[in-house]
Design goal:
By secondary structure, this protein is mainly alpha-helical. The chain contains 6 helices and 2 strands; from the N terminus they run αββααααα.
Length: 147
């Protein structure tokens, strides 16, 4: 799942193996682009549940799961730093690319969606970790219903 989140961040559009449990190989992949990513990362309260259908498609749910796993590693790395087990400097070669990708390399509207997701779902350790790397990802704009 973490690899999938990395692929999604690294590519504007790419076929991602979101459903590895599917028997047929071709059914395992979905094309994920920036628009699908932004929809997937929307705050759940902004999605109206209609006719007893889920708020998110199965593809969007798989993307959310991938980002939950990806961000949980940032949470864990921040805990390691706080516990004195590692320093930010020691983690820099492994994390700097992804921190820069999220904070400055990715398109602003996608960055905004990621920021809202991090803030809305309480990834406070991720916010602290980004600050350790000189990147402030605290909310700067209101949530939008038109993602």
């Amino acid at each position: 799942m973490v690899r999938n989140a990395m692929f999604i961040l690294d590519w504007g559009a790419r076929y991602i193996e979101l459903f590895p449990e599917k028997e047929k190989y071709d059914d395992r992949f979905e094309k994920v682009d920036r628009e699908i990513l932004k929809k997937a990362l929307q705050y759940h309260e902004l999605r109206i549940k209609e006719n007893n259908k889920e708020r998110f498609t199965r593809t969007e749910i798989a993307i959310r799961d991938a980002f939950d796993h990806f961000l949980s590693y940032f949470e864990r790395y921040n805990q390691f730093i706080e516990a004195g087990l590692l320093s930010a400097k020691e983690l820099e070669p492994y994390l700097n690319y992804w921190i820069e990708a999220i904070s400055s390399k990715i398109e602003p509207d996608v960055r905004n969606a990621i920021y809202h997701y991090i803030n809305s779902y309480g990834f406070s350790g991720t916010k602290k970790l980004f600050l350790r790397f000189g990147q402030d990802i605290f909310l700067k704009t209101e949530l939008s219903t038109t993602i």
